[in-house]
Amino acid sequence: MNDFLNLILEPLQEVFSKFKEFVPSLLAMLVILALGILLARVLRAVLVKFLVAVEFDNWSDRMGFTTLMRKGDLWVKPSAVFGAIVFWMLIIVTLMVGLSALKIAAIDNLVGQFFSYLPRVFSAAMILVVGYVVSSFISRGVLIAAANSGYHYAKLLAEAVRVLLMLMILAMVMEQLQIATSIVLSAFSIVFGGIVVALAIAFGVGGIGAAKRIIEREIAEEQPEKTQDDIEHI
Amino acid sequence: MSDFYQTGNITTLHQLGKPSLERLESELLGFAKTRPIALVLPALYSEFEGLAMPGIVQELTKVKYLNEIVLALDQATEADFKRVREFMAPIPAEVKIIHNKGKRISEVYETLKRNGLDAGPQGKGRSAWLAYGYVLARGKSDVIALHDCDIVTYSRELLARLCYPIASPNLNYVFCKGYYSRVTNKMNGRVTRLLVTPLVRSLQQLTGQHGFLAFLDSFRYSLAGEFSMSVDVARINRIPSDWGLEVGSLAEVYRNYSPRRVCQVDIAATYEHKHQALSSENAEKGLMKMAVDICKSIFRTLASDGVVFSEGLFRSLIVTYLRQAEDTLMKYEADAMINGLGFDRHEEAKAVEAFTRAIAMAAQAFVENPMGNPLIPNWNRVSAAIPDIFEMLKTAVDMDGK
Fold first, then answer.
1. Mean pLDDT in chain B?
2. Strand partners, B71
3. Which residues pair with B329 in a beta bridge?
4. Which of A85, A136, A153, B56 is 20 to 30 A from A26 in CA distance terms?
């Protein structure tokens, strides 16, 4: 009978002892989460105040980030969006740290992968931000230069330049994030290469006449002028 | 039928004989192919519940030459906005509605404000200004016409005559103001009749000939809310956000263009719209508020053009104005008598007394703060400060419309 009871109680005791071992870890995780959320909220408030003080919103308006947000139907202040991004990043980090406190091998592995991936996310974000500013700057430069040259489709040209640059930047970002790297690279090569080939064919075929005229004019200019006849014909 | 007398240094386009509306509209249809026309309507939701807006919409359904209509809707909830969208649906032209109280447009105003480009308080000035911005953002129209949305006697002839001088490539005008007689069974338009004209003439008497005063005096109805202009005017003109809107807009036109490129057109035989109470005891509302804002706008415009306003000048102005207004009152009494119109001389005299007080208040306000409320910046300046503002505005309106 005792053996039978032992058979029942032993697993229960084992579960209980494991649970006793697990409770401190669980408590630690909950404390980490609570503190992390509190810290994230405080940091968000401080960050938003700091961004407002340094006129981040105005800078964002001028750089075109605000318009980019609006196109994504995001109608709040850029500083609030930045604050929210940082807040959720901190929440994710807190969650990861909290989960690692549970000391479960599978989760530890996941947390490790997450933290090793973070630098990539950061550099991808930097590429995106800097790339957007640079592409806007170049696009505006193209617009001004083309408009001042009297080019009829200046706006279209500037937009095309912006789209191409953004395409390149997005490919770089995806590559950095290691999301379907080979597909992104192939797609980018095909699209970019296709555009270049299309332009080459368009200009090549369309510009045959113009090229011919330019070459003929060059040759005509290089030929020495005919010596004038001394004899005056009647 | 009006006479053919040309007033002052701008062109007056009279209604002579019975011009055919069909001819006007067919010509406008031709002009609109090369110079597309946008109609801007600054409206309150309450105007859709009254008599005026249903009539206006019914008339606009028959208009074929408009490229787009931009309705700047104020004091409307989300549900009101949806109702207005349905209400405007029968109009054949493309209708875009700016929901001024909507979340997205509020954010656009917030963006402007934090960049030091305050569009001022809610009102016709701000609504009209934002609607111009939207027309510029779309870049699909060359001519902008604007009229109020409280016109009970609206007919599409008014719109056709308003658009014609600017839309026609054969006429070299950039700004056109509508005029009409504000007569029912009595004479209305007290602020123009008894304040603006006598005030302008009094100022001319005191300060001598001045270009702006002569320009202002050339308009038969300087406070008319109906005008048309080329998009370039909308791009470079700053406008006041208060009741000085009409006078302030004329001041900007005077500053930026030659009077030879400005005209006024007779747009309606009769014109009836919402009337404001005089509120002679309260300078914060009604015609008194309007009168004070208009006077301040005139003083500021003249001061910015080098006219020196001293205390003595203001004292003389009040007395001169009173004499001018009393003389004007007698003229209108005679005019009313011969036409069999009702004329309450006591009420008119009370209005003159109230306007005299308004001039004194405006003078005091001007002395205390010559700069006053800044004008809403022009769109060139706004786009210099926030290069993507047009894109943002377009996105906001288009998303609201979905």
1. 91
2. B41, B97
3. none
4. A85
Residue A233 has pLDDT above 90, yes or no: no
The C-alpha atoms of residue B126 and residue B47 are separated, in whole angstroms, by: 18
Q: Given a cut of 60, is residue B221 above it in pLDDT?
A: yes
| Pairwise pLDDT comparison (B277 vs B305), residue with the higher score | B305
Q: What distance separates the 2 farthest-apart alpha carbons in chain B?
A: 59
B43 in helix, strand or coil? strand
Task: Answer yes or no: is pLDDT of A229 > 90.
Answer: no
Interface test with A, best of B388, B390, B402 (most A CBs within 10 A): B388
Who contacts B28 (Cβ-Cβ below 8 Å, separation ≥6)? B37, B65, B160, B163, B164, B167
Q: Which amino acid is at A7?
A: L
Q: At A227, is the pLDDT very low, low, confident or very high (cuts 50, 70, 90)?
A: low
Of B278, B235, B280, B279, the closest CA to residue B257 belongs to: B235
Under DSSP, the state recorded for B11 is E
State residue B59's pLDDT score. Answer: 94
Question: Residue B356 — very low, low, confident or very high, per pLDDT cuts 50/70/90?
Answer: very high
Instruction: Count CB atoms within 10 A of the CB of residue B18.
Output: 7
**Helix ranges (DSSP H) in B40-120:** 46-49, 52-60, 78-88, 103-114
What sign does the CA torsion over B205, B211, B214, B220 have?
negative
Q: Check CB contact under 8 Å for A62 and B391.
A: no
Buried b (16+ CB within 10 A) or exposed e, B125-158: bbbbbbbbbbbbbbeebbbbbbbbbbbeebbbbb
User: What is the strand order of the sheet B94-99 is part of?
Assistant: B11-13, B262-268, B175-180, B227-230, B143-146, B37-44, B66-74, B94-99
Amino acid, res. B164: Y
What is the gyration radius of the CA atoms in chain B, in angstroms? 21
Has residue B135 got a pLDDT over 90? yes
Expressed in percent and rounded to 5, the helix, strand and coil fractions of chain A are 85, 0, 15
Instruction: Assess whether pLDDT exceeds 70 at residue B39.
Output: yes
Q: Which residue has the higher pLDDT, B182 or A224?
A: B182
List residues bridging with B39 in a β-sheet: B69, B145
Contact B151, B158 (CB under 8 A): yes
Residues B27 and A46: their CA atoms lie apart, in Å, by: 63
What totals of helices (H) and strands (E) does chain A contain, helices first?
A: 8, 0
The shortest CB-CB distance from B399 to any of A62, A64, A73 is to A73
Structure tokens at A51: 């961004």
Residue of chain B with shortest Cα separation from A71: B395
Mutating which of B114, B118, B140, B394 best tests the A interface, going by the most A Cβ atoms within 10 A? B114
What percent helix, strand, coil does chain B show, rounded to 5? 55, 15, 35
CB–CB contact B103 A75 (8 Å): yes
pTM surpassing 0.90? no
pLDDT of B134 reads: 96
What is the H or E stretch that residue A159 is in?
A: helix A154-177
Q: What is the pLDDT of residue B402?
A: 78
Sole residue written with tokens 């308080």: B121
Which residue does chain A place closest to B105, by CA atoms? A75
Q: Measured between CB atoms, which of B385, B387, B396 is closest to A70? A: B396
**Quick one: B292 exposed, middle or buried, by C-beta within 10 A (0-12, 13-18, 19+)?**
buried
